[in-house]
Recover the amino acids of this structure.
């Protein structure tokens, strides 16, 4: 079940949800608008090595098609009780911004300045600390184990920490199903 804006505020007041800093003006009917940190990582297609980092100045920074940008939430967001989805805002989606296309789930126990995946279909100017997306909180059914993964506690945009994905290795996660192994 999704939490309403009022329930999010109550959970923040009780300490069940962390949003730091919290501003009640950013509450929606069933979400909270989060802002963009002023640092971006730019990933160019085909480039190897360390990606370029830029600071978004007050005048803005133009995102260009054909690149992947990693940003982060200005707010520290998470919960030991609720799962989260980090979503885009429809007003920016209508301008051609894709936000968190593949990684929108925030697990119970994960508290971070979340890395955001940004991709555009046309040039789009972004500004430091602009409201760029929204987070919704959900109750979990059953007993949930707290997240202990490799991105726990991030404080800014973070590139992939999965070396198996970034190198031409034949290694794979032995626990992951393969084409020969049926998914239980």
């Amino acid at each position: 079940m999704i939490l309403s804006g009022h329930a999010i505020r109550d959970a923040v007041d009780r300490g069940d949800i962390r949003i730091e800093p919290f501003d009640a003006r950013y509450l929606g009917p069933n979400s909270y608008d989060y802002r963009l940190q002023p640092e971006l990582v730019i990933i160019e297609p085909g480039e190897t090595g360390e990606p370029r980092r830029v600071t978004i100045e007050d005048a803005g920074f133009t995102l260009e098609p054909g690149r992947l940008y990693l940003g982060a939430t200005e707010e520290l967001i998470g919960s030991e009780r609720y799962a989260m989805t980090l979503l885009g805002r429809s007003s920016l989606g209508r301008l051609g911004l894709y936000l968190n296309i593949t990684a929108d789930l925030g697990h119970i126990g994960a508290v971070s300045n979340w890395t955001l995946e940004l991709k555009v279909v046309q040039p789009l100017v972004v500004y430091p600390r602009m409201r760029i997306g929204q987070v919704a909180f959900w109750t979990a059914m059953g007993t949930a184990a707290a997240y202990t993964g490799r991105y726990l506690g991030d404080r800014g945009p973070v590139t992939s920490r999965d070396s198996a994905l970034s190198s031409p290795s034949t290694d794979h996660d032995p626990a992951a199903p393969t084409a020969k192994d049926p998914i239980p």
About this structure: The first helix runs from residue 5 to 14.
